[in-house]
Specification:
476 residues, Nucleotidyltransferase, domain 5, alpha+beta, nucleic acid binding, 10 strands, RNaseH_sf, RNaseH-like_sf, globular, six-stranded mixed β-sheet
Length: 476
């Protein structure tokens, strides 16, 4: 996962100087400084969302929010789709299920034409998540596992290719054949038994079987997925986000804002849902989307600086720049947490010492072990009104009901009223979830918020959906 992220950050760094920046509260555009032969790059991020019975495949930009034409552009380009977004009613008895063929059609017939009509002098950087659906190859590409050992049988029809022959000359080949390349060996098996069903390219031995030998050839190694080939053939760029890094794709925050609109305006009928979803997608203004994108750009910057995990999240959540460690208030905060801590540089901040300190911050309020033993209620810097507003907001966002006793029960927790005391908590041997489940009979609403927070798994794919639903925390 770290290697995927490093590769992605390097790719983005090589492109950033040609991408516009948006700054200040009004998110004013700062155009890139281009060389004479360079064109501006525009990041076009993609994601798919299934909202009950409607699947949405959307493209989002900092430049203009959704990838769609305005009224004037529509009149100028009558043969170009008005927008790149696609809707699908998934299911066996509906419109089927979203596949790579649907996405390729959307990119070819809608996204690329719409982008080129709207930005004729720019190049798109299409960014997709690391879904297996996005790594599918075209039918005629060079995939060794599709090939037979001999001419008989159901042979794949592959495109023409070129290779360097034994005499050093470049040759054209209409089928990938080992004999023509001088690589054939007598009694060579099609596939080595130990590799059957495994990824051929990941195995170290290169001459064990026919498939491994042909898969090691330069033209096979250089083979790209269908969506990359489609986008690059149109003169644009295709990149993929690293796995489990939804914070790098600002469309995730956009989904959260759109869902919030849908919850408030939908009458929860099928007809109402069909009307509300397109309205929800248009409800998020361009300035808000640019602010979402700035958070993702800041995450990239912090990861390059060596900050990861809790430290990166804390920095982004507080709106601090990378130089926040020099701030006097920050130094005072860490001095309060542990007077022995020394913030020497950014690399040290990514270490385990400060990770422990950040655990104190993250778990301060609803973790009894910290509350009872470490927390000082008289601190003037703690704003309990804001904290209680946060609890109420998330309870309503997660349950769709307004809390009736949440704040009064939190007041009981603050003053350590039973069962909120250290003696009871210690009986659960530091099992925080078991403790809050025990409290559920009397403190149902507060228990719900606590268990929801402590159940978040940052290594699970479900964190992507939770991330987009918690917009208040990472957008305020």
């Amino acid at each position: 996962m770290v290697a995927y992220r490093k590769k992605f950050l390097e790719e983005m760094k090589s492109l950033e100087h040609r991408i516009a920046r948006y700054e200040r509260e009004t998110m004013e555009k700062i155009p890139p400084v281009l060389e004479a032969n360079e064109k501006e790059l525009i990041l076009v991020t993609h994601d798919e969302r299934n909202r009950r019975l409607i699947m949405v495949s959307e493209f989002l930009l900092e430049e203009c929010s959704r990838l769609k034409l305005n009224e004037e552009e529509i009149r100028m380009h009558l043969n170009v789709p008005k927008e790149a977004c696609c809707y699908l009613m998934p299911g066996k008895n509906q419109e089927g299920f979203w596949t790579i063929d649907n996405l390729l059609e959307q990119v070819r017939d809608k996204a690329i034409p719409t982008f080129e009509a709207k930005f004729p002098n720019a190049i798109a950087v299409f960014a997709f998540d690391n879904s297996t659906n996005h790594s599918v190859y075209a039918e005629d590409t060079f995939i060794a596992t599709r090939m037979n050992l001999k001419p008989a049988g159901n042979q794949p029809i592959m495109r023409s290719t070129t290779f360097v022959g034994a005499n050093g000359q470049l040759k054209t080949q209409h089928m990938a054949v080992l004999k023509e390349r001088g690589l054939w060996k007598d009694k060579l098996p099609l596939e080595y038994k130990a590799y059957k069903g495994k990824e051929i390219s990941n195995n170290l031995q290169v001459d064990c079987c026919a498939r491994k030998i042909i898969a090691s050839q330069p033209d096979f190694i250089a083979q790209k997925s269908a969506i990359v080939e489609l986008i690059e053939s149109a003169g644009h760029i295709c990149i993929f986000y690293p796995k489990f890094h939804c914070e790098l794709n600002f469309i995730e925050m956009y989904w959260g804002a759109a869902k919030n609109y849908a919850r408030k305006h939908c009458d929860y009928t099928w007809a109402g849902l069909q009307t509300t979803i397109p309205q929800a997608l248009d409800s998020v203004d361009t300035i808000t989307i640019r602010k979402f994108a700035q958070k993702s750009w800041r995450y990239m910057e912090l990861y390059r600086e060596g900050l990861t995990g809790k430290m990166a999240k804390m920095t982004i959540a507080n709106g601090w720049a990378v130089q926040w460690i020099k701030n006097s208030l920050t130094l005072a905060l860490f001095n309060w947490l542990n007077s022995n801590l020394k913030l020497s540089d950014r690399k040290e901040l990514a270490g385990s010492v400060l990770d422990n300190a950040i655990n104190d911050i993250n778990q301060l309020f609803l973790y009894p072990k910290y509350w009872f033993n470490k927390f000082n209620l008289d601190l003037e810097s703690i704003n309990f009104v804001s904290l209680e507003t946060w609890f109420s907001y998330y309870y309503q966002a997660w349950t769709y009901y307004k809390p009736t006793k949440l704040l009064s029960k939190f007041e009981s927790y603050k003053v350590e009223k039973l069962p909120f005391d250290n003696n009871i908590y210690e009986q659960f041997k530091d099992n925080i979830l078991a403790y809050w489940y025990f409290c559920s009979t009397m403190y149902e609403e507060l228990e719900f918020v606590a268990t929801k927070i402590f159940s978040i798994s940052v290594t699970s794919a479900s964190v992507e959906h939770l991330f987009s639903s918690m917009g208040f925390l990472h957008t305020s």
